[in-house]
């Protein structure tokens, strides 16, 4: 008969604090968020101690960064809205308001300032690409900046 492993309370606490992403793609070479290291700031606080807003915020950042890693220097990440014809938002910032609100800051393709405020139970994010807004040498990489912020918190 097989023995059942008993975790120590420290191991159980650590397992609770770690996010457990899982992805499968048709092309096994496609990079995915599940294969990336989790930022230190994400695993500092156990999942059970995070608000739904903070937890959604942290996970979206991991997806944003992974998405940006596949982009060329001519494109930036944007967000397409689901369930209507509100269009696309070039993501220039992101935040959350405990316990249950996530917000995205940016601009639409015409350059108009745009902000989406959404309850976590209604959260649907479709990541898209848009050509860079300004002709510069390097595209704006908000996912990398947000992930850096998670490392520092």
Q: Care to describe what's here?
A:
There is one protein chain. By secondary structure, the protein is of the alpha+beta class. 28% of the residues lie in helices and 24% in strands. The chain is built from four helices and five strands; from the N terminus they run H-H-H-E-E-E-E-E-H. It has a five-stranded antiparallel β-sheet. Helix 3 packs across helix 4. The termini are far apart.
What is the topological layout?
Elements: H1 9-17, H2 40-44, H3 52-69, E1 75-80, E2 88-97, E3 101-107, E4 113-119, E5 126-131, H4 142-152
Antiparallel strand pairs: 1-2, 1-5, 2-3, 3-4
Question: Averaging pLDDT over every residue, what do you get?
Answer: 80
Strand order of the largest sheet: 4-3-2-1-5
Radius of gyration: 18 Å
> Given the C-alpha coordinates, what overall shape results?
globular
Q: How large a portion of the residues is in β-strands, by DSSP E?
A: 15-25%
The N- to C-terminal Cα distance equals 46 Å
Work out the helicity level.
25-40%
Specify the biggest β-sheet: 5 strands, antiparallel
> Counting H and I runs of at least 4 residues, what is the number of helices?
4
Give, in order, the helices and strands.
HHHEEEEEH
- Give the number of DSSP strands: 5
- Provide the low-confidence segments as ranges: none
Structural class call reads alpha+beta
């Amino acid at each position: 008969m097989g023995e059942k492993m008993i975790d120590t309370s420290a191991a159980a606490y650590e397992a609770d604090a770690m996010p457990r992403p899982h992805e499968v793609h048709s092309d096994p070479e496609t990079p995915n968020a599940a294969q990336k290291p989790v930022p230190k700031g994400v695993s500092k606080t156990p999942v059970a101690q995070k608000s739904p807003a903070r937890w959604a915020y942290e996970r979206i950042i991991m997806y944003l960064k992974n998405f940006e890693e596949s982009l060329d220097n001519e494109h930036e990440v944007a967000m397409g809205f689901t369930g209507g014809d509100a269009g696309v938002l070039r993501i220039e910032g992101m935040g959350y308001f405990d316990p249950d609100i996530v917000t995205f800051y940016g601009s639409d393709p015409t350059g108009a300032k745009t902000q989406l405020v959404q309850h976590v139970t209604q959260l649907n994010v479709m990541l898209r690409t848009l050509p860079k807004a300004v002709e510069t040498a390097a595209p704006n990489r908000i996912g990398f900046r947000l992930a850096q912020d998670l490392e520092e918190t």
